[in-house]
């Protein structure tokens, strides 16, 4: 069962919803991943209702095991781990979407412009992209974070800047392929402006691999947030995030290893859900599969 470009453009129409539900019924991996992510978003929205304990209130009951009062135990400062896990989800998801959003805002227009204009613009853009991609991503993110200042928003803007060259290169290649099609030449012949050609013809037909890559990068951004928070460059105490929880529990790994399970498994399952959803989208948007169906 393939998902067509028209179904993506038709937004909330009944036919588009039917195609979506039909796709989810035919792809168990996508259905499970999407259900998990929707549950996670719901928990994030209603964190104050779901978690009865304050995520920042300290107590003398430190490193307590799971119990009826503290479902996942307490950390080294006596704070409820379950509450911190639930309240940390919005920050972690915010970080992932912020990084991918920044990467998209930079990479998409740059890649489309380079691919459509070609010539020296394409050559110069390609050299800049190659230069940025030559740096190790986490090192470049740390360097940009150091320039912008420590904090979650700044660190994820840095990650988004790191993502942008790869996204720009992907959409550039797709733009080059699509702009040479006959219907684009016909649009030029009828006097359509370059902006309208890009928006109405090139972008809708070149965006499928970009959408898949953005979905996969959400998982990468999640791990990047965890890494930067682990290094103290992301979410700052006492505000919880999964990476920050993992960093703090690392110091007590020998005497209370269960402290690492909750944030570690949350990061693992969420990253797997984003990756699985991206793989399912890749298969659904594959034109060769649509032809075979």
TrEMBL record:
Its main location: membrane. Pfam families: BPD_transp_1. Coiled coil: none annotated. The chain crosses the membrane at residues 30-51, 93-118, 138-163, 210-235, 260-281. Keywords: Cell membrane, Membrane, Transmembrane, Transmembrane helix, Transport. InterPro entries: BP-dependent_transpt_permease, MetI-like, MetI-like_sf. It is a multi-pass membrane protein. PANTHER family: OLIGOPEPTIDE TRANSPORT SYSTEM PERMEASE PROTEIN APPC, PEPTIDE ABC TRANSPORTER PERMEASE PROTEIN. This is ABC transporter permease. It comes from Teichococcus globiformis.
